[in-house]
Write a sequence for this structure.
């Protein structure tokens, strides 16, 4: 299993319940695919540096996980087609 850091931004214009549900669905997706969530941070609503998909604010989440490549590919696939997701970034962390 490799270590990854995933940052994703959810639309701030949707209701707070929907923001939480989106976040929880991605956490559940990863855990169902045998990934281990090591650290999870809810960064809150922040102003974006520039407008993305007509959004000026976004709700930020950052998590560090241990997962295999299949779990990461599935997260990436789902995040690309989710209308509530503004942007996501997956970084593979170096092994120490």
């Amino acid at each position: 299993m490799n270590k990854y850091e995933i940052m994703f931004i959810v639309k701030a214009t949707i209701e707070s319940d929907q923001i939480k549900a989106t976040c929880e669905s991605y956490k559940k997706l990863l855990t169902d695919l045998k990934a281990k969530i090591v650290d999870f941070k809810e960064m809150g609503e922040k102003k974006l540096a520039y407008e993305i998909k007509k959004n000026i604010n976004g709700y930020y989440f950052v998590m560090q996980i241990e997962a295999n490549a299949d779990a990461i590919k599935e997260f990436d696939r789902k995040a690309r087609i989710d209308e509530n997701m503004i942007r996501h970034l997956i970084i593979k962390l170096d092994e120490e």
The mean pLDDT is 92. Strands lie at 2-11, 36-52, 55-67, 85-92.
